[in-house]
Amino acid sequence: MATETIAPGSASAEAVEPSTAPTADESPGIGHRIERFNHTGAVQKFIVPPGVTKIDARCWGGGGKDRRGGGGGFAAGDIAVQPGETLLVVVDMGGGVGGGGMSGLYSQRLGQPLLIAGGGGEGWNHVAGGAGGGTHGSDGTAETKDRNWTAAKGASGTIGGDGAVHRDVKAFGGPGGSTGENGNPGFPLRYAGEVPIPGMGGGGGGGDAAGGGGWAGGGGGLAIGTRFLCGGAGGSSFVEGPGVTNGRTLAGAGTQAGGKGDPFYQTGIGDAKGRGQVVLQWTDLTLTVTQGGPPDEPVTQGGDKAAYPGVRVASTAALGPLTVTVTLPPDRHLLWGTQAQADYQLTVQHPDKTQVPYPGVLSGDGGSLTFTDVHLRLPGTTIMWVAVSADHDSPIGSAHLTFDVSGKTSPSTRIVVNPAFTVSPSGDPVILQRGGGEKYPGVKVGNNGARNVPLQTISAVLPQAGLRFGGPHGPDHQLTVMVNGTNRVYMGTISADGSTLTFTDVDLAVGAEKTVMFVCVSATEDALTGPTNVAFTVGNQASPSNMMTVT
Q1: Whole-angstrom Cα distance, residue 26 to residue 400?
Q2: Half-sphere exposure of residue 247, counting CA atoms within 13 Å on the CB side?
Q3: Superkingdom, according to UniProt (predicted)?
Q4: Which domains occur in the chain, in start order?
C-alpha cells in the first residue's frame, strides 16, 4: 500500500497517489480498486483518481488496548468526491493512552469530517472497557465494593462521556472530549486523547483505563485499589458528513469489533488490543475523452463569427453528474463567445442527438469555465462544445481548448485563426522611366469578416537604389488611403537611408467595399532597369505593390 503520513493536525505534506493493487483476500471485478489504510500514528492522505466521483468507505475504530478492551465501532458510507481532491485518512487515533482511537475520513476540500468510527475503551485487570459506537459508545464496566462511585460513560452523539468518579477518594477518570475537543486527563492525571485534525471528533478521556476516541470521546476509567475498578468507555461514530449517502454504523460488542460481517473485514481489526483500519473502494470507469464535436471552422481576428471546439466523451458504464472545466490556451487571446456577445455556455449533445445547454462559472482570470452537475446520459458517446472567437491580437494559426471531464483531459477540436484582413497588389503594371515622372504603386485590403480592425502601422519599402519617394520636383512622404472613392492622406516618417516610409494610426476601414492605398515613387537617372515593386507591410500582413518596370 502506498500511502503518506503527516503529523497529527497537519495537512501540509505533499499528497501521493494511492496504490491500486488488491490484497490477497480480495477478488475485484473489472475496474474495481481498493486501498487499505492501517495505523501509522499519523494522518494519511488519499488522492481521488481521475474520473472517480464516488468512494465507498468502511472504517473500523481501534479496540481498547487490553485483553478486556472494548471492541471498536464500524462506520461506512458512499462519499461523493471530486477527481483530484485529497481526503485525509485517520486510522486509530485520538483515544486516551490505552484507549482505542477513532478511524475515519476528513474532506480537505470541504474542511469537514465525513465518516468516523468510534474506538473502544481500555480494559483494566478483569473489568472490561466499553465498546465503540454506533451513535452511542458503551459505558465502561465496573466492579465496586461500595456505592460512592459512577462508572465511565460512553459518548453520546456529539457529547463526550463522563469519566468514572469515586467520591470518597475524590479521584476521577477524565471526561471524553465532545466533538472538536481533546479528551480530559482526569485525576490522578493520566494522558488523554488528542483530536487528530482540528474539528474532527473528540479525544478519549484519560484515566487508569482510558476512553476511546470518536465523533465524541468516551470517558476514562478508574482504579481505587480493589474497592473500585472501572474500564474506559467507548467513543461514538458518525456517518452524516457532507456528500455521504448510504451511511451506516454498527457498535462493537464486548471485546469484539462492529462490522465483522463486512466482506472486507480482516481478522483482529478493531477487536480488543487490535488496531483500526480504513478501507476505500472505487471503480475506474472506462471514461474516455477525445477530440470531437462540430466541424473545425475558422475564425477571424476581431470577427463576429464563433467556432465551436469540443470533445467526444464515451463510457461503457452509466455515470452520475460530472464536473467539466474548459480552459483557453494562454497567450492566444481567444474570447468566450464573440466581441459582440459573451457566451459562457456548454452544449452537450447526448447519444440520442438531443442537446442540453449548461451555464458555466467564469474563473477570476477569465481563462476557464466550470460546469457542474453535467448529465451525459451514458453509456454511449456524448459530444460537448463551447463557443469561442478570436480577439484582434489573436495570433494567426491553429489552437485548442483543454477540456477536463471529471479529471480526464483532452484537447478540443482545432480552432483556426485567420487574419482580420488580407493585403494584395492593387492596380495594373506600370512603366517607371529613369529621370521621369511619378507613379503610384499600391496594395488593396480585403476584409475577412472582422467586426472592426484597430488602427494599423504601415510601412512601404523601396527595393533598390535609384528609386525615391516623390518625384523630380521634390520628396513626397504621404500615404493615400482610398475608401470607396474617398481619399484619406497620412504623413509618414522617412528612414535615415531614405528607403522606408512608416505610417502610424492608419484607419483601414476594412468594412468598406473597397480599400486601396498607395505612395508616390519615381526613378533617378541611374536606377537599375527591369521589373520591381514596393514592399508594403500592413500590421502583420505583407504584400508587394503592383508591378513596376524601370526603363
Answers
A1: 43
A2: 19
A3: Bacteria
A4: 288-418 (2.60.40.2110), 421-550 (2.60.40.740)
CB-based burial label for 297 (10 Å; 0-12, 13-18, 19+): middle
**CA dist., res. 294 & res. 305, Å (int):** 14
Taking only the tens place, the pLDDT of each residue in 195-221 is: 999 999 999 999 999 999 999 999 999
Cell of residue 417, nine digits: 485563426
E strands, 412-464, are 415-418, 421-426, 430-432, 442-447, 456-461
For 187-250, give the DSSP string: ETT-PPP--SSTTS-BPPPPSSBPPPPBSSPPPPBEEETTTEEEPPPPPP-B---TTEEEEEEE
Alpha carbons 276 and 4: distance in angstroms, whole number: 17
Contact 153, 230 (CB under 8 A): no
Contacts of 450 (CB under 8 A, 6+ apart): 300, 301, 302, 303, 392, 420, 421, 510
Radius of gyration, alpha carbons of the chain: 39
Selection from 507, 504, 520 nearest residue 458 by Cα: 504
Per residue, the 3-state secondary structure of 63-100, as one string, reads CCCCCCCCCCCEEEEEEECCCCCEEEEEEEECCCCCCC
The separation between CA 550 and the C-alpha centre of its own chain, rounded to angstroms, equals: 66
- Angle at the Cα of 382 from the Cα atoms of 332 and 341, rounded to 5 degrees: 40
d(CA 104, CA 101): 10
Cα–Cα distance measured from residue 99 to residue 120, given in angstroms and rounded to the nearest whole number: 6
Grid cell of 364 as nine digits: 477570476
Phi–psi pair at 290, nearest 5 degrees: -135, 170
Interval 127-149: pLDDT, tens = 999 999 999 999 999 888 767 78
How many C-beta atoms surround the C-beta of residue 404 within 10 A? 21
Cα angle for residues 94, 99, 101 (degrees, 5° grid):
35
pLDDT, one tens digit per residue, over 263-272 is: 999 999 999 9
* Global confidence as pTM: 0.56
Identify the pLDDT of residue 511.
63
| CA pair distance 262, 265, nearest whole angstrom | 5
Q: Could you tell me if 350 and 382 are in contact, meaning their C-beta atoms sit under 8 angstroms apart?
A: yes
Cell of 401: 481548448
Write out the three cell numbers for 256: 469484539
Query: How does residue 242 score in pLDDT terms, banded at 50, 70 and 90?
Result: very high
Contacts of 496-502 with C-beta under 8 Å, sequence gap 24+, read 498/462, 498/468, 498/469, 499/461, 499/462, 500/459, 500/460, 500/461, 500/462, 501/459, 501/460, 501/469, 501/477, 502/457, 502/458, 502/459
User: Which residues, at least 6 apart from 415, have a Cβ–Cβ distance to it below 8 Å?
Assistant: 296, 299, 307, 309, 334, 388, 390, 398, 399, 400, 401
